[in-house]
Structures are given as structure tokens and as C-alpha cells.
Amino acid sequence: MQQTRSLIILDRRALNRECFVKVLDAHQLGLQPFAFESMDDWKKEKDSLPPAGAVLVSVGGSEVGSEAFLTELTEIAAELTGTPVIVLSDSDDLSCILQVIDCGTQGYIPTSLGMAVCAEAIRLAMVGGTFVPASAVMTMRHKFKARPEEERPMTSLFTQRQVEVAQALRRGKANKIIAYELNLRESTVKVHIRNIMKKLKATNRTEVAFKINQLMSDQNRTFQ
After folding, report:
1. Under 8 Å between Cβ of 116 and 27
2. Which of 8, 161, 180, 185 has a CA-to-CA distance to 146 between 20 and 30 Å?
3. How far apart are CA 165 and CA 163, in angstroms?
4. pLDDT one-digit tens code per residue, 122-160
């Protein structure tokens, strides 16, 4: 008999939490929904709950692009490795969507799409997929047509935090030193490094440093 798993819903707004539990339970995702104000609240009760099968992080549009939220999101994804994390937000801004996916999540759902789409996005994430709204895909398509990949500066290729980690890697710093200097957990630094390597198609830290040097050289020549 398959063990029941939890759908962990994180939202600081009490009314939202209550609504999400009822509505998502009705969609029969095969997960038992539990809502909490924060990760810390969930940790206090997790031993008495079924293991996490997916996490839905609901956040307001004004918060989703903030450094504090993105750092927290990266830490959630790192701590729950193997458990899909999906973000639900009022914003449909492309830069916010890309930043959220860069944090190691498996989906971004604008609230304009409705709860039925939210449920399907969770199902997709549970089988290994990543959900982004079609509007974001079209926007990215137009951006790629407008400017070739090789002409994009580092700040367009990476989030600000990833730029900082990449610069530290370029200088040969160890993960513990990077974590200390950027005030991050070492597990968070590792997530950033994995995402940087994926974007650069690099297989090790040496190759990352080499490609970062190339990017900076190309960028400097562009602006000379």
C-alpha cells in the first residue's frame, strides 16, 4: 500500500492557507494538504505528518523578486532536495519567473491562471516536469530573437546572487568561504553553483572559472 504524502503549503496569510487546503484537497492530487505560515512552523510538526511530496510556496507579487525571498526559496529547495517546490505569486513578470526557477524550483504559477492550473502544475512537478506560464515562454522567445545569446552580459544570464557566487568561483574560493562572505548557508551556495554550471554547460569548477573569464572578456570588449 502506497504511503500517503503531504502537500506542504506555505503562506503568511491565514485566509489563503485555509482556502488552499480546501480547494487543493478537492482536486485529489494524491497528497494530503497541510498549510503553514513558514518553513519553521512546518519543521515543528513534520515528524507527526506524512513525508513531504510537494511544496507550494504562495507569495505576494511585491515580495517574489526580493533578495530575502529568493534566498529563503533557495534554502527551501536545497533542504528538500528531491521534493518538488512550486511558487504561486500575483506577479507574471518574466525576470521574477526566471529568478524563481533559478532557485531550484519546479514551477511558477501566476494567480491569474486559477487553481485548476495550479493543481495540474503540481502534478507535473511530481513526475519531474517544470511548469512556467506560456506567456513567459513567448516573452523569452522574443528576447532571444532580439539579442543573440553571446551578447548577453552576466547580469542577464545570472541572478545577482549567482553573479556574486560566480565571481567567487572565478577567484578559486571554497564553498565555506563563499558562504561566509555572502552570508549564505553552504547548502545554498551548492545550489547556486549547480545552477551556474547548468547555465554554462560546465562540468566542474575549473571550467566554470574559465567560462566566467570568457564572459567577462567578451562583455568588456562589447562596452569598449
Report:
1. yes
2. 161
3. 5
4. 999 999 898 888 776 665 565 555 444 444 556 667 888
Instruction: Please answer whether residues 37 and 17 qualify as being in contact, where contact means their C-beta atoms are separated by less than 8 angstroms.
Output: yes
Asked if residue 169 lies in contact with residue 205, where contact means CB atoms within 8 angstroms, the answer is: yes
Whole-angstrom Cα distance, residue 5 to residue 83? 11
More confident residue, 15 or 206: 15
Q: What would the mean pLDDT of 60-68 be, rounded to a whole number?
A: 79
Q: Determine if the pTM surpasses 0.90.
A: no
Q: Could you tell me which residues are beta bridge partners of residue 161? A: none
Task: Parse the chain into domains and list their residue ranges.
Answer: 5-137, 147-222
CA distance linking residue 150 with residue 148, whole number of Å: 6
Length of the chain: 224
Q: Angle at Cα 142 formed by Cα 152 and Cα 211, nearest 5°? A: 20
Given this structure, which CATH class describes domain 5-137? alpha beta
Instruction: Specify the residue for cell string 551556474.
Output: 196
In whole angstroms, give the CA distance from residue 51 to residue 42.
11
Kindly report the CA angle at 119 between 18 and 196, in degrees rounded to 5? 105
Strands 5-10 and 31-36, bridge-based pairing = parallel
- What CATH number should be reported for the domain whose range is 147-222? 1.10.10.10
CB atoms within 10 A of CB 202: 18
